[in-house]
Amino acid sequence: MKLYLLDATYELFRCYYGAPRRRSRRGNQEVGAVYGLIASLLPWLVQLRGEALGVAFDHVIESFRNELYAGYKSSIGVPADLLEQFSLAEDALQALGLVVWPMVDFEADDALATAAARFHTSAESVFIVSPDKDFAQCVRGRHVVQLDRRHQRVMDEESVTVRFGVPPRSVPDWLALVGDKADGIPGIRGWGPRSATVVLRVFEHIEAIPDDGTRWHFDLRDKDRLAASLCAHRDQALLFKTLATLREDVPLPQKTLEELRWLEVSFGVFDSFCQHWGFDKLATQARNLSASPPNAGVCNRG
């Protein structure tokens, strides 16, 4: 049985900016992103009947990382009519019969990283369904991979190394040095993708990089300046690495892969949900798609 772990926060954001606006049946709430999310996921989900599925949401944008670093990403600037759709989106996917993990203290990324670490030995293969570069650190060989559902591309360990120039285990270090604008991590002054790649290929982790650039026994322009910058900001670099490192200790209630097996849409619950919110066409679409044969796990590696 394969395991698919869906980054629903990413999916909801994408639908908010890509799907038409839509009001609820009563006209008192914007629901276009949720409608788009369900419409986008249904054809994909019905191909995965019998496989294991887990879905994670950022129930609130803030997490424990905001307590560690004030500049970390937050809900500031996120449209109010998007934020108010998060709980509804969670209800929608639960109505489909999926296991949903709404995160408060942790992030959705942490839940998916935890599930990948917990179940990778029992799953035939694990697909982390998100293009977010943070998940590159979770990739293991060709067994635990990232799936960009939109473009049907899979990134395995070899692909991660090609993209970042370092293997998955060094990705948090790479992000700490270079920075990650999407997460509010500024990186270390003077460091860029090339310098981080060259140094981490040798030392693998920030903790192992010597303060003295003369101990960097390889060719790199301005290595003395880079070493001095890291020495002056090492505590900051280690903090950024902590921010970039996905947690694998989220207390998810499921202990076995079988608890994540998804068989079909929970039609009674989903029909009621669609009727309440004015999603009648989605209820019909779900029934029509469920009548088609499954075609699980179809994707292209590369």
Please explain how this structure is put together:
The protein has two domains: 3-163 and 250-301, 5'-nuclease (Rossmann fold); 165-244, Orthogonal Bundle (DNA polymerase, domain 1). It has 13 helices and seven strands. The chain has helices at 8-18, 32-45, 64-68, 80-83, 86-95, 108-119, 157-164, 171-178, 193-203, 223-232, 234-244, 267-277, 280-290; strands spanning 3-7, 52-58, 99-103, 126-129, 144-148, 153-155, 300-301. β5 (144-148) and β6 (153-155) form a beta hairpin. The mean pLDDT is 94.
List the helices and strands and how they pair.
Blueprint: E1 3-7, H1 8-18, H2 32-45, E2 52-58, H3 64-68, H4 80-83, H5 86-95, E3 99-103, H6 108-119, E4 126-129, E5 144-148, E6 153-155, H7 157-164, H8 171-178, H9 193-203, H10 223-232, H11 234-244, H12 267-277, H13 280-290, E7 300-301
Helix pairs in contact: 1-2, 2-5, 2-13, 8-9, 8-11, 12-13
Number of DSSP helical runs = 13
In angstroms, what is the radius of gyration? 21 Å
- The N- and C-terminal alpha carbons lie at a distance of 22 Å
Mean pLDDT: 94
Which CATH architecture of the largest domain? 3-Layer(aba) Sandwich
Helical residues, percent = 40-55%
- How many domains make up the coordinates? 2
How many beta-strand segments?
A: 7
- Strand line-up across the major sheet: 3-2-1-4-5-6-7
The 3D shape can be described as elongated
**SS-based structural class?**
alpha/beta
User: How is the CATH topology of the largest domain named?
Assistant: Rossmann fold
Relevant CATH superfamily of the largest domain? 5'-nuclease
CATH class of the largest domain: Alpha Beta
